[in-house]
Specification:
- The protein contains 11 helices and 13 strands.
- The chain is of the alpha+beta class.
- The strands form 3 sheets. It has a 6-stranded mixed β-sheet, sandwiched between helices.
- Strand 10 and strand 11 form a beta hairpin.
- It binds alpha-D-galactopyranose (GLA).
Length: 388
């Protein structure tokens, strides 16, 4: 995590010299369960030790927000009552979450904010959810007497993506950022919102991310198309079975999917086929983790990669290449992590193979693409919190 003094010095310099409160929220990893959240399925994320840190302070105005993005050296001022909101994409997260917190009854007024991050942007580690939950945590504290529940902050973050940023995402990222706990992964049932903490200490193994540095941009993108495909399949299944209740693919069986195959077409069929498989894989991974069977965990990760690449089609050449290198090096499990279209692979690797794998991946990737992948060792950290 970053240094509070770093953020504080910028806050003091860019505004009126006064200090505020400092809040932090993490990015996330996800062991397995990809594109299942908006399909009512299961996910298995954990917060990481990298994220967003913000200093915030009410500035006494009715609705003027003065915002400074430290890493971008960019300053934007805007009014909460301006229905259009700011143009800069980073500032829209601040505007959006403020509006969503107001909807939850928090009397948000004007404030100053400076923030910085050490979670890599566009790497599939949810830098945007880290921003939303960090700002929500601050607004709840400064204006809302901390009355808004953690779940409502999760949903406010998700609504910010939907209403102000153009991404129809699920709840995994915001959930992980708010509820994360050091040393624990969390299994979340996205339909019932029940979850449990899973201490994660795979003896003799390490979790490492390899960042292809291919930028991933979800806004207005194929991400929403994937979601539409899934919803289309549900609609067709529901129409065939008026007696049943079909809200998401979670409610659908393999047989029902096969029944509508011809009507929905091969593309939507493949998308839904991946999602049904992924739902089962998360549960299999939970059982395997309880049994300490990391070989099965790893095998499921490879299956997920295959499905994301060939059925869901959210991989890219660079990520498939990293996955192949993992296989060649005897890595236990490897797959694309997050929404896809670039970003990272997550790798479960035996400690004794780690050095060789990383060296080989760097060398081969650089030889092919002209730059090395970035390497992030995963440390599972805490969720959103006030630092001072
Ligand atoms: C992005 C979204 C999440 C989830 C993942 C894929 O990170 O924000 O809601 O759908 O993609 O699992």
């Amino acid at each position: 995590m970053m240094d509070i003094e770093f953020v504080r010095s910028r806050f003091i310099k860019h505004f009126d010299g006064k200090t505020g409160n400092v809040y932090a929220s993490p990015g996330r990893i996800n062991l397995i369960g990809e594109h299942t959240d908006y399909n009512g399925g299961f996910v298995f994320p954990g917060a990481v030790d990298k994220g967003i840190m913000a200093e915030m302070r009410a500035n006494g105005t009715e609705d003027t927000v003065m915002a400074y993005a430290i890493d971008l050296k960019d300053r934007v001022d805007f009014h909460l009552n301006d229905p259009a909101g700011p143009r800069a994409s980073w500032a829209r997260y601040i505007y959006g979450i403020a509006k969503e917190m107001q909807k939850l009854g928090v009397p948000v007024k004007g404030f100053n904010i400076a923030f910085a991050g050490d979670v890599p942007l566009g790497a599939g580690m949810s830098s945007s959810a880290a921003m939303e939950s960090c700002f929500a945590c601050g607004l709840n504290d400064i204006f809302g007497e901390n009355k808004v529940s953690q779940w409502d902050m999760v949903l406010a973050g998700q609504a910010t993506e939907h209403n102000y940023c153009g991404v129809n995402c699920g709840i995994m990222d915001q959930f992980a950022s708010v509820f994360g706990k050091a040393g624990c992964l969390m299994r979340l049932d996205c339909r019932s919102r029940e979850f449990e903490y899973f201490p994660f200490k795979p003896d003799g193994y390490r979790l490492v991310l390899l960042d292809s540095v291919v930028k991933h941009e979800l806004a207005g993108s194929p991400y929403n198309d994937r979601r539409n495909s899934c919803e289309n399949v549900v609609k067709h299944i529901a129409a065939k079975h008026p007696e049943g209740k079909f809200e998401t693919l979670r409610d659908c069986t393999w047989e029902q999917l096969d029944e509508v195959r011809a009507e929905v077409g091969e593309e939507d069929y493949k998308r839904a086929h991946f999602v049904l498989g992924e739902k089962d894989r998360v549960l299999a991974v939970c059982d395997a983790l309880i049994a300490g069977d990391y070989e099965t965990v790893g095998q499921k990760m490879y299956e997920t990669h295959y499905g994301l690449s060939k059925e869901y089609e959210v991989s890219c050449e660079e990520l498939d290449f990293l996955n192949d290198i993992a296989k060649e090096n005897g890595v236990t499990g490897s797959r694309i992590m997050g929404g896809g279209f670039g970003g990272c692979t997550i790798n479960l690797v035996r400690a004794d193979l780690y050095d060789k794998f990383i060296a080989d991946a760097k060398q081969k990737f650089a030889a092919k693409y002209g730059h090395e992948p970035k390497v992030y060792d995963v440390v599972i950290g805490d969720g959103s919190r006030k630092l001072c």
